[in-house]
Design goal:
Strand content: under 5%
Structural class: mainly alpha
Helix content: 55-70%
CATH class: Mainly Alpha
CATH topology: AhpD-like
Number of domains: 1
Radius of gyration: 16 Å
Number of helices: 10
Order of helices and strands: HHHHHHHHHH
Number of strands: 0
């Protein structure tokens, strides 16, 4: 049960967004720019970064919904599981592995990122924009995860709902809700 009176039947961040639409708008826009707008990292790669940070933060809603979005972009549900379990041995690029190292360090605290971490990413072809966006995705998802869990939002356990949500996010982005109370019921 949520810690405050959130709209009924809206899981995770959707309940908080419905409660306070004026704060939802910039939060949605940030997610849209970071995860959906064209970038040299694919949307699938960026969703994997969001999923990994959410996994480290133990935010079920975010790791499952963004994992579903990553799977929809990449056409591969197993890669999401492998990245969460042991990204160093997952079938992803070495560049993405170095970016996930950076994201994991940001999740612990921004000062954990070292010049060596950044140089290793650069050595594998990461651009300053990709490094910047990795850090910002990781930092933003620490905020989103804490928002979801700090409000004690309802966590839907039905995996099929997350698959539908992930397909919507992969196709439409983040500017509009991916769920309504009718879709959850």
């Amino acid at each position: 049960m949520a810690h405050i009176a959130l709209p009924e039947g809206l899981p995770g961040i959707t309940g908080g967004f419905a409660f306070r639409p004026e704060t939802a708008k910039p939060m949605r826009e940030l997610a849209h720019i970071l995860l959906f707008e064209p970038n040299s990292l694919t949307s699938g790669e960026r969703e994997l970064i969001a999923t990994y940070v959410s996994y480290l933060n133990d935010c079920y809603f975010c790791q499952t919904s963004h994992g579903a979005a990553a799977a929809a972009h990449l056409g591969d549900e197993e890669i999401v599981k492998r990245v969460k379990a042991d990204f160093q041995h997952a079938d992803i690029s070495d560049k993405l592995k170095t970016l996930l190292v950076i994201a994991g360090k940001v999740q612990k605290g921004g000062k954990h990122v070292t010049s060596d971490d950044v140089q290793q990413a650069r050595n594998l072809g990461a651009t300053d924009l990709e490094i910047h966006d990795t850090v910002l995705i990781a930092a933003a998802f620490c905020m989103y995860n804490r928002y979801v869990d700090g409000l004690g939002t309802w966590q839907q356990q039905d995996e099929s709902m997350y698959a539908v949500m992930g397909k919507h996010l992969a196709a439409e982005g983040y500017r509009r809700p991916s769920m309504s109370t009718a879709e959850v019921a």
